[in-house]
Amino acid sequence: MAAEAVLEATTVRLRPLAEHDLPLLVRWSNDPDVRHWLHRSESPPATLELAWALVEEMRRDPRTLAWCIDAGGRTIGDVRLLKIDTAHRRAELGIAIGEKDCWGRGFGTDAIRRVLRHAFGELGLRRVWLITDADNARGIRCYEKCGFVPEALLRGHRLRYGRPLDMLAMGVLREEFADG
Amino acid sequence: MISEIILQGKRVRLRPVEELDLPLFVLWFNDPEVRYWLSMSDGPEFTLESEQEWYDEMRADPWCLVWCIETEDGQPIGNLGLHGIEETHGRATLGIAIGKKDFWGRGYGTEAIRQVLRYAFGEMGLRRVALGADEDNTRGIRCYEKCGFVREGLLRAYRLRRGEPVNGVVMAALREDWERGARGGRDGR
After folding, report:
1. Which of A160, B26, B106, B114 has the highest count of CB atoms within 10 angstroms of its CB?
2. Contact across the interface for B88 and A164, Cβ inside 8 Å
3. What pTM does this model have?
């Protein structure tokens, strides 16, 4: 299910993913510097068809919410809540800033904080977690700023260029999340 | 998918789940002591309809494989599955439940898991099998350790059990460790 709510944050605005975003998603995930950090690094290059199928799948899945991140009048990335589990009141977060000149400028932090506020508020979740490449220092710093705490080191959880790579699981609980 | 493969151990046999097993699953998983450790512990009662739904889902899901665990004399005692199978990254998640309580703590689960690991790391070519367990499930965790699973961390309040948050231990077995163990010729391999 594409996210219906538009979420305003300080420097970014989160809005539902639309069909016209597809070429952008394809360009990002085929950029080697972006792809390096994505699970998709092992998959064939993205195409419009593949991206469309992915977006359709997310729309059909009631456990997924996806937003595009707009900043300074353009779209710079996307953020998602996945595997939203209403019984255990938890979800997984995924984010990618596809425009590299926007890396390290706090847009991701702003977007994540806004999504967490939505998750712990309107959605009534108790726990949001994520997994990230253990060598993704910039990402981990950003997640820590948002309140995520390292919880587990998953040995060889994925392959990058054919080699096993450790991933870090991080979680944030509602009672720990101080917005702003 | 429902596995078509039969895995034969010394005391256990893993065979395809059949529709005929479903009434037994309903019985097992509604037992409060069994249910307590299941991720669905807080959900509605299991019924034949809900188990049929589960069975149809499993059959249709190409990223999972489930088996029924039987004793040597053909008595079903539980089930076991590999879920979220990611061939690209060579990993899967393991789930097991021994539904017949009088078979708890007698090594049946351990042997069943060892059979599945051999299959996962061998024929399937996986590199990593992970699982999550309630932090206070000491019997389960001991069994997983015997099978070669190593604790990787603790997910805080990862689920609700009887309405209360419970921490989850993440454990994983890696093919390279398992192969070293197998060469050492441990029991049940």
Report:
1. B114
2. no
3. 0.93
